[in-house]
Amino acid sequence: IIGGVVILIVERMPRYRSAAMEAPMDVSQVTARQAALVGLVQILALVPGMSRSGCSIVGGMLAGLSRRVATEFSFFLAIPLLGSATIYKFVTTLDTLGPDQLLLLLLGAAFSGVFSLLAIDLLLKYISRHSFVAFGYYRIAAGALILLALPSDFIA
Known about the structure:
By secondary structure, the chain is mainly α. The chain has one domain (2-149). The chain has helices at 2-12, 14-21, 32-42, 52-62, 67-93, 99-129, 133-149. Helix 1 (2-12) packs parallel to helix 4 (52-62), helix 3 (32-42) runs antiparallel to helix 4 (52-62) and helix 4 packs antiparallel against helix 5. It is globular, with a radius of gyration of 18 Å.
């Protein structure tokens, strides 16, 4: 819920709107100061329920990046993090995998990579024409539904 509210606030900030008009049009134009601010805001993802990509995208927008560049930069930040975690997990469990399991793991990784790239492409196209307001409302609604479902045994 908090993440959704933050997204809505940042989207409505006049300072962000004017900065986004002059924002870098390419990830290669992100300054060290902007990257550092994104990294600092990304630390909030350590709080349970906070999205790493959401934090880094909002951080990029607060640093003066356009939605598209902030989103691209967020995904580029994920590559070393998720790549190293995947390699670590693979290396530490390799001796427990049989040949069939290894083949399934590699096929799953290949399909996951292809569909991840397609999803990222769709998101970047969407963000080029729209704001994150719908995502903000979605996060608030999803959070409210989860809070309402917690007292029941529906969510354990």
